[in-house]
Amino acid sequence: MKRAVVLLSGGLDSATTLYVARHLGYAPQCLAFHYGQRHEREIGSARKVAARAGCSLEVLKIDLPWKGSALLDKEMKIPQRSRASGRQGRGRIPATYVPARNTIFLSFALSFAEAINCRDIFIGANALDYSGYPDCRPEYYKMFNQLSALATRVGVEREAIRIQTPLMTMRKSQIIKLGLRLGVPYELTWSCYRGGRVPCGACDSCRLRALGFAEAGAQDPLVTR
Amino acid sequence: MKRAVVLLSGGLDSATTLYVARHLGYAPQCLAFHYGQRHEREIGSARKVAARAGCSLEVLKIDLPWKGSALLDKEMKIPQRSRASGRQGRGRIPATYVPARNTIFLSFALSFAEAINCRDIFIGANALDYSGYPDCRPEYYKMFNQLSALATRVGVEREAIRIQTPLMTMRKSQIIKLGLRLGVPYELTWSCYRGGRVPCGACDSCRLRALGFAEAGAQDPLVTR
After folding, report:
1. Chain B partners of A94 at a C-beta cutoff of 8 Å?
2. Structural domain tally of chain B?
3. What contacts A107, CB < 8 A, 6 or more positions away?
4. What is the pLDDT of residues B171-180, one digit of tens each?
């Protein structure tokens, strides 16, 4: 079985991506980050999801002392109804954007993949029902793949490590339907940016999730708990 | 004064780059990484160089548990006469290559630059008298700059953060001559991969440094100590 590095945040999209990678015949090696996010409890969800899928998980602690995001800085407010959220991420990029976060995550994934001699990285980026973050768009991943070919020894000497974004053009409801078919344990995932005991129901992430389950005609197992 | 993020390793090239950025009128904000490198003492050099230049320094600790490099893994041997080292990095990429290291460093620099609202990042990459690392070549930086335009909020909404590589096409001797003119305190820098009490004189990094000083007709102040 070919190995693949899967970026697992503990949220709905990354959990689905993990199950897609497994379904495609890869042996996933999950990678999660503790980066000072308010919703640190998503790490616990990542651990549970990886365990349920029978995959290893590496959790890296990274330090972003400059913050620059409502997800990291408790003095900043998590927006309740960001104009950006929703289909196609119209409007301004919201305050929950973390400077260059996905570039940091992918660079570690690239290093991990090269060190363990694996050629594929999976990430649950989505540019349809999303918050409008620049590093979730297809053009960004296309460019990162071009960078990957130049950045590593394996890319130069043999074959570039490829970033795969299977959910990129799917609606949240389609992601959920696919995930339910693949047996993704959504009750173990965590999406809320606030990271309280129960989801707040009002942040971008909660709203996109609720919209997705509603459109999929399914009940969110997390909300019933 | 415009601020710039300067990646400072504590070595000769990055110290020179810091002084070049300062000479160009930037107020440098230095960034160094503690990433499990054997020659951890370069961090001490980075602190001294930044202090001498009167600049702030942020030191981040990052974890690369997968290693995959002789610079990180004490079970691996640091090559003494890598075929790759020397002018134009001919031949194979040596065992001291750290998977995706510069991509990781640059992604943190991008995050830092965006958070402090600065548009320029300086790195002392050089593709002439170098070890043949893929992420030291001009094509890699050209691509990273294209990625930068897509990766960040500031890149999308206003202007991309730019990676500047002033030493890229210089010979080591030219770097040293320039640095001596700008007052770079080379006695505070550290290049040796082995990170002992004194430079080993045999690793790629020591050899390139010695060649540079010899060709510049200058005495390395570190060696006389």
Report:
1. none
2. 1
3. B100, B103, B104, B106, B107
4. 999 999 999 9
pLDDT in tens, B51-68: 999 999 999 999 999 999
> How many Cβ atoms sit within 10 Å of the Cβ of residue A63?
14
Q: And the tokens for B217?
A: 């007709």
**Alpha-carbon gap, residue A157 to B92, rounded angstroms:** 9
Q: Is residue B75 part of a domain?
A: no
* Inter-chain residue contact B134 with A155, CB threshold 8 Å: yes
The answer to whether position A225 is within a domain reads no
| Claim: this prediction has a pTM higher than 0.90 | yes
Structural domain including A110 reads 2-216
Q: Is residue A93 part of a domain?
A: yes
Closest CA of chain A from B12, distance in Å: 23
Residue ranges of chain B whose CB lies within 8 Å of a chain A CB: 58, 60-68, 92-93, 97-104, 106-108, 110-112, 114-116, 134-135, 137, 139-140, 143-144, 146-147, 150-153, 155-157
Predicted ipTM of the assembly: 0.93
CB contact (8 A) between residue A98 and residue B111: yes
Nearest 5°: the CA angle B10, B15, B20 is 160
Among A62, A97, A151, beta carbon nearest to B134: A151
Q: Which residues of A touch B65 (CB under 8 A)?
A: 58, 60
More confident of the two residues B83 and A109: A109
Least confident of A1-15, B11-25, B28-42, B140-154: B28-42
Rounded Cα distance, A183 and B73, in Å: 39
**Is residue B7, in this structure, part of any structural domain at all?**
yes
* Option in A102, A108, A134 nearest B104 (CB): A108
